[in-house]
Amino acid sequence: MQFTFSTFIQQIINGLSLGSVYALIAVGYSLVYSILLFSNFAHGGFLVVGGYACYFLLTQWGYSVPVSMLGALIASGLTAIITERLAYKPIRERTTTTLYLLIASMGVNIIIENLFVVTVGGRIRALPQNTFPTGVFKIAGITLSSSDIISLVTAVIFLTLLQIFLNKTRWGLAIRAAACDIRTAGLMGVNVTFLISLVFFVAGILAAVGGIFLSVRYSLYPQLGSITTKAFIAAVIGGLGSLPGAVVGSLILGLAEMLTAGFISSQMRDLVVYSLLVIMLLIRPAGFFGKAVSEKI
Amino acid sequence: MKRNILLILIGLALALWPMGGYQEGIIILMCINCIAAMGVSILTGFTGIFTLGHAAYMALGAYTTAILTVRYGVHWIPAIIAGGLVAILIAWLIGLPTLKLTGDYYAIASIGLGEAIRLILENWQSFTRGARGFPGIEPYTTRICAVIIFIGLAIITFNFLDSRLGRELRASRDDSAAASLMGFNTPHTRMKALLLSAFYCGIAGALLGGYMSFIQPSMFDMMKSTELTAVVVFGGLGSMSGTILGSAAITLIMEYFRDISQYRMLIYGLLLVIIMVFRPEGLLGSREIWELFSLKIFKRGRK
């Protein structure tokens, strides 16, 4: 494979587009981690719910594209809330060991994935072609598809909205307080149970957006959620619990993946991702933006 | 001593009880899963280091044994031991830098390393035949062989846990600062636990290869790693008999639902969540099973 400048630019664009989808998912991971200090592996499940909800609203019930997408966001957000109430709340009320939450979240992920296998089948589906405006622009040998642009723009819009929500609203203030210290926030009159549900709802919405983009980009199948492992790695590289970190980590990962695929071999891209993770953990376990936690004695 | 005799009796029953081929398969699978779970239990239950990547050591053991027996014609007994040793070697290389990580970060690093090892096996086509898998392994894992290795390792494990080294592991789990003040070299302790657990998983992987006659990198993915840790948590952290019971129970439950394979993973997921929600301390908590009985006798005596 030869190194040409236009392939380089092409892979940068692909990388940014992939990274922006990762960012939407990674921010959800980080948001939950910042409050509950555990890695919610059920996030992939929320994403799949979003994808399927959008698919069925569009094709089976014939709703318009915006309505279907809104429906998908809500379905995913509600799934996240229900998961939290049924699976995580009893655990976190009983113990402070986050490993139990981690294993339960993996269980939830398996449940959601296989619920879809059992009910709608494991076959690969595709969202209708006209979900997004399609079109390909060619500028100086570089292909720029409209879905790349849309995913970048949407990611920027949603992340900005999230930033405004966290920084300008009372609920956002409460979430930031809880991220500092959830018990003190509770003592200060924040309704912690409601707050956690809210955080999960927001994370679910972001996962659904990511899910819709992924099912347009690739296709829709029950195991689509496994791609969130990459977003999780991005969140770790950026620093778990840090939202800017999640975005930066996602862009780095998207670029690394696409540049590897473009110039080395596409089989190596996953290996590069996991090596990046391990190297980052060895150099700086807290990631780029994470709070460095000193060991408590 | 009584415990060793009990284990040998269980082993004799498992090895000699007349049964059909299908039941034999379940016993073999149970022994393999228990060996791997014992390994993870040493690391997670007794030393307090959570891992989500131990399936990789099973893969290393399985591939080493398969390649040695099929390509180089080595007898399967030294090949299995070599599988365990390769797992130890890689664990040592991995452990040197990563065991310094504390808390969740070791678990996350182990996900990355486990997946990286799987991907290397998958992409090293010329050596491992890649994702298509490695067929034609001699079916050396008979019921007798699996039971002997399992019971042998179980006896070693229980006695080892009562030894000085076993107490060292527990001390470094419960309070590593106090343990190092008492003169234990806690980083060394953690390393010993990792090496031991890698050895057990390597052996388990080697036996799995001999039972299935076919191995594939995707058999040792993150799902398998999670299953290993989940089984240990289900049995009870810090309880070796709990680990063995839990592992045997999960194997039986999963086998029972083999006919409705569509629902099998669904049930597995539900089990994970239900266990975590209703009994996070696991089947036996941190006690061994005979402690439960002796406790009852003790109480009766006091009345």
Record keyword descriptors for this entry.
heterodimer; A: 297 residues; mainly alpha; ABC transporter involved in vitamin B12 uptake, BtuC; two-stranded antiparallel sheet; 11 helices; 3% strand; globular; B: 303 residues; 14 helices; 0% strand
SSE diagram, text form:
The complex is a heterodimer of chains A (297) and B (303).
Chain A: H1 5-36, H2 43-59, H3 65-94, H4 98-119, E1 136-139, E2 142-145, H5 146-168, H6 170-180, H7 182-187, H8 192-217, H9 228-238, H10 243-263, H11 269-283
Antiparallel strand pairs in A: 1-2
Chain B: H1 2-16, H2 21-45, H3 55-72, H4 76-98, H5 104-123, H6 125-128, H7 143-162, H8 164-174, H9 176-181, H10 186-212, H11 222-235, H12 240-256, H13 261-278, H14 289-302
Task: Report on this structure.
The complex is a heterodimer of chains A (297) and B (303). With 297 residues, chain A is mostly helical. The radius of gyration of chain A is 19 Å and the shape is globular. In chain A, 72% of the residues lie in helices and 3% in strands. Chain A has one domain: ABC transporter involved in vitamin B12 uptake, BtuC. In chain A, a hairpin with a 2-residue loop joins strand 1 and strand 2. Chain B is an all-alpha fold and 303 residues long. Chain B has a domain of 194 residues. Helix content of chain B is 77%, strand content 0%. Chain B has 14 helices and no strands. In chain B, helix 2 packs antiparallel against helix 12. The two termini of chain B are 29 Å apart. The mean pLDDT of chain B is 84. At the A-B interface, helix 3, helix 4, helix 9 and helix 11 of A face helix 5, helix 11 and helix 13 of B.
